[in-house]
């Protein structure tokens, strides 16, 4: 009995080893498969067959951000105009490569549940809207009207980081048609798209920050004014030293100069002193203006991301340079 059990165990071990070493293809010999054996499988209305699996490209590993597009429903913008702006904005964003564009089907209800004017400019609120719509980023257009002109604001917002990536404002638009015409250019700006002008193939468009240019210009003019003031101040010192060389009588009149010559010399000294003081004051004013321009100069996207309630006190003052063929000026606006 013991011998029989040993032989049976040896046979089982030998059979297992043989099955392990035998190629798997050997078990398929004599077996055939036809089209019925690999017919398409239908599950919940979606059909997959052999060709679909073979033709499906492998994922490249690069994730395209899902970008939701919305024209913000603000006061003064009718439903029809908002939809027209929505269509123009989506058409413009569709020209941008490397992103997946989605409409406002989910964004609009989520935004209307909140205060659109507040939520569209407040990063935390807008991030919640984006998460509810399941998008990675948001491109929004906001239109406001003051007097007879329109202002178009286009924002590019990152939902995950709760950050305005870029921001562009187009002001003094004469009509709503001009607003629609400006959408594509505004979208190109926030996405950093630059196009050559067709009439000039060599034209290269450059972003110009007028406020920063004015800051450097006023700093340079302040230095020039200071140097001019110092020059006239030195002339005053020379004039005073020259008058001290002439002797005077007990009554204060000059011995070697006539009364008219003494008065002319005194007027020259006073004129140089006044000129020096004017240039000193001008230099100080330009220096203060330059400092304000540098301090108040900021990225509009950063300003919007902070929100109106989080603005530092010095951001409440906005300086806007004004340049025309007739004059150059500076305008100031204080926001409460």
UniProtKB/TrEMBL annotation:
What domain of life does the native source organism fall in?
Bacteria
Keyword annotations from UniProtKB, A to Z: Signal
Kindly indicate where the leader peptide sits in this chain.
Answer: 1-28
Q: What is this protein called?
A: DUF5683 domain-containing protein
